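User: quick one, fold this
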Amino acid sequence: MQKSKIIFLLSTLYFLLSISAWATVDLAEIGVGARPLALGNACVGGVDDASAIFTNPAGLAWNPNLNVISMSGTLLSDVNYLMVGISDYSPVGKVGIGYLNAGVGGIPITTITGSGSTAAVVQTGTTDYSSSIIYFSFGTKLSRFFRGRGENLSVGASLKYFLQGFAGGGSAMQDAVGTGMDADLGLIWEVKPWARLGLAFNNFLPYDFGGKFVWTKNDVTEGIPMAIRMGARFKILGEPAILKNETHALDFLVDRETGRGSNRPELWHLGLEYWPSDLLAFRVGINQKPKATESGVGVDNNLTGGVGIKFFGFTFDYAYHQFGELEDNATHFFSIGYRGREEPRRKRVKREKRKSAVPIPEIVPKPELKTFIDLPDGYWAKKPIEYLATLGIMGGYPDKTFRPERALTRSELAVILIKAKGLKTERKGKTIFADVRTQDWFTPYVNAAVSRKYLKGYPDDSFRPNQRVTRAEAAIIFARFSGLYIKPKVQKKVYPDVKKKHWASPAIAASKQVGYFEYLGEERFEPAQFLTRAEAAEILSKTPTVKKKIKKLISGE
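Assistant:
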């Protein structure tokens, strides 16, 4: 197939990369999710969910939860696209996998017959074009490698596999397919709590090290142009932010892009994101793209905008994106994802205020406390976690992390309670539940916890060891563990969102009275919220049994 014919067919995808020569299509310019697109694609310093797979993999390290992102639809009524990404924590850091695909069907293949005044363009068939990229990504904070130092720095990398080409079209398009490989490298530096700087090298792998694309037809090999993006995210309004505000948040994002070929001009990406509440966001931006002009290559200032909804960790995002000067070139994007549940901004701010309002003298313990690389200075439950880890009641993971925001399971809580009491367990014992096997490591602890009535089984003779514990369930369990008196009924609401007739209301009242849930404040309890490892450490450190052990640890007895 002649080079000119390839150019003609690829011109259908002009809006993707403004292709003007034989080139490999990098779909990452559009396949980043509706939120970054609404922000003018200014995402190098401000994306910390699964979208970071396609932009700056270093951003993965700033969100410890399971993250999912997806986007699909039709661009400019002709190009079908699909984007899916998922990332989660692992012993080596945050890992992710992503997939991008865009395709155009029914592209005409033409030929010129005759010459001069009798020349005519005749369609000889059609072909379909498809381009895909598969990502394998990794991101981590440098503190993982430097014993807690570098908590404000993260690095990341993505290995990319390209597959694109044409299907159908007869002999003219036979073997017009190709594959390639390249990689992205990223860095994010949190200079201040309200400012992050990002740097990303997209397609940085040198040609001699495999960064290339090979077309099967005629064995044509080409390099994949590298792009360098520098960006920043500044928190203008919010907490933490330049201007403090407990309920509203406003972020400004900016990226500068260079590269992707010698004929590409320098491009800028600008975005504003405003959160009037924890649930709703409004976004606007400018996403510059190259365009052909009479004097060479110019720049299109494409306007973008959108809204986002975040509910119980799930995200629903919409983006409007202009492509070029024609109104018909505007495209609407929709993304659905999951970024994990986060503490409401107002509740987080009030908890920090309570902590700072009552200064607690720093007690330097005689023994060295065991610490973890994902517990930064100032983390609200840092001390209780370190005390319990040093006492051997709670442990971390092989990668020296504690993962404080991870939800606790019933079997894990059983182990912690028995260790807190210092009770001995039989190494081998008969299981009393159908779903707890004799060989399971937690079986002796489950048996001990159930025999002491800290936890109970279910009517179907199951224990459900992997089921996560809710705050309502935790209130009952810790009340039993501490021997608290639980009244049969409560006379008034313990929390605004806990009804008096709620099945756990008496236990919640008893636990609150002794200060177990002091860290939550007075606004909401959220009984269905899963109990995190950090919360378990905070509550357990206030129980009489563990409180005595911590005092002995501090005094060096």
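User: anything notable?
Assistant: Residues 184 and 202 are 4 Å apart (CA to CA).
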